[in-house]
Amino acid sequence: MTDGPPPSGAGCTECDAAGGWWFHLRRCVECGHVGCCDDSLERHARRHYEATGHRFIRSYEPGEHWFWDFADDEATVGIPLPAPEHHPVEQGVPGPTARVPQDWRVLLANRP
């Protein structure tokens, strides 16, 4: 049995809107919003939590099934969510491949 809304898309909602890129993706358990992780430049998943109070996320990466609680800043257990469970495999990490700058490692290492 699955519960909750489907994901908002294949990539970070805000990064896609701005033509940007991300490192890893996270999916909001409450509303399905897909945002980029805390290791990404913009940290849109955390910003979504701060704006909405939706505290639980699930990894939106292939092969990862863990949940996180932003309020307690710790791993937690969750329920199965509607498909898809992750972004398209061909999207690449970081992604989307066509928008990732060549110096992405330097940019992530030097982010504030």
TrEMBL record:
<dbReference type="InterPro" id="IPR001607">
    <property type="entry name" value="Znf_UBP"/>
</dbReference>
<dbReference type="Pfam" id="PF02148">
    <property type="entry name" value="zf-UBP"/>
</dbReference>
<protein>
    <submittedName>
        <fullName>UBP-type zinc finger protein</fullName>
    </submittedName>
</protein>
<feature type="domain" description="UBP-type">
    <location>
        <begin position="1"/>
        <end position="95"/>
    </location>
</feature>
<dbReference type="GO" id="GO:0008270">
    <property type="term" value="F:zinc ion binding"/>
</dbReference>
<dbReference type="InterPro" id="IPR013083">
    <property type="entry name" value="Znf_RING/FYVE/PHD"/>
</dbReference>
